[in-house]
Design goal:
299 residues; 7 strands
Length: 299
């Protein structure tokens, strides 16, 4: 199921209007199953199922249809894909949403092979880690990226002001007074933005502005997050092999039971002592010395 988790993380959010429900949705569907994430900006719901669950649910909802799970998953993908891309309903499908306290059900009605096809996405509240993975961390990364972009643009504007000043000092004159600008001051600009532009800029609404304008940045941040995670896992995989030789005590603890097991059958067979290593010769001798001491004590 890790393929579904990673695939879902790399998907953009889509805005979905269902009657009175405005939802942000992202989905990832393969032949092995699907993962779905839904949010109304008040709560986040999630469902992830494999092919066996798809087969069982398809039998319960579509008794007249008989098909492998991959066929049902392919049909669900065909229904959701255009809906999540342009927020227009496919003519052959109808979507409805039922929302209760602890669950959200997204119902689909369409046709498959000329017969009615029904499907219910049963979503439960997403775990905090899932919300962090798909919303909190990407949004923090996007904020940091936009802040870095603002600083780069402010630096570029200051350099442009110096370039214009150099032109002016060399005698260059503007042909039109309308093109004249004041030197850029970052602090004044930020103060003015906070007062005049911030209320409009941070209007989240139903989530549609975020879905419409920021998905390219969202996907770039999530791809970077996945890449960093894979590199971190790669270093963890290499760490045991690179650090296996230094801790000698651990190696002795691991190898000690093997030596005791291998030396046990060699005690009653003296012929193997000549072919064994020096360490294998010493182990039977040590065990014999212990036995002699025990006999002396009993005598």
């Amino acid at each position: 199921m890790k393929e579904l988790e990673q695939g879902l993380l790399m998907q953009p959010w889509a805005w979905l209007q269902l009657a009175e429900n405005s939802l942000m949705v992202k989905a990832y569907i393969t032949k092995q199953g699907y993962a779905l994430l839904v949010s109304d900006l008040q709560q986040v719901w999630h469902e992830e199922v494999d092919a066996s669950v798809v087969s069982q649910r398809a039998k319960e909802l579509n008794k007249r249809l008989t098909a492998p799970p991959a066929a049902f998953l392919c049909h669900l993908g065909d229904l959701l894909r255009p809906l999540l891309k342009d927020t227009t309903f496919p003519s052959e499908a109808m979507f409805t949403c039922d929302h209760v306290v602890e669950a959200l059900t997204l119902r689909v009605r369409s046709e498959l092979s000329g017969l009615p096809f029904y499907w219910n996405f049963h979503c439960i509240p997403a775990s905090p880690s899932l919300v962090s993975q798909h919303l909190v961390r990407p949004l923090m990364g996007m904020s940091l990226a936009l802040q870095c972009q603002v600083r780069e643009l402010a630096t570029l504007l200051c350099m442009k002001d110096l370039e214009i000043q150099d032109y002016q000092e060399s005698g260059t004159v503007l042909s039109r007074d309308l093109l004249k600008t004041e030197p850029f001051e970052e602090n004044s600009f930020l103060e003015q933005f906070m007062v005049e532009k911030l209320p409009e800029a941070c209007s989240v609404g139903n989530g549609r502005p975020f879905v419409t304008h920021l998905q390219s940045l969202y996907m770039a941040v999530t791809r970077q997050e996945i890449q960093v995670r894979q590199e971190h896992l790669g270093t963890e995989d290499l760490q045991p092999s690179s650090s296996a030789s230094p801790p000698g005590a651990e190696n002795q603890l691991v190898n000690q039971p093997k030596e005791l097991i291998s030396s046990a059958p060699s005690l009653p067979v003296p012929e193997k002592e000549s072919t064994g290593t020096s360490s294998s010769r010493q182990r039977p001798q040590l065990s014999k010395v212990k036995r002699k001491k025990l006999r002396g004590l009993f005598n």
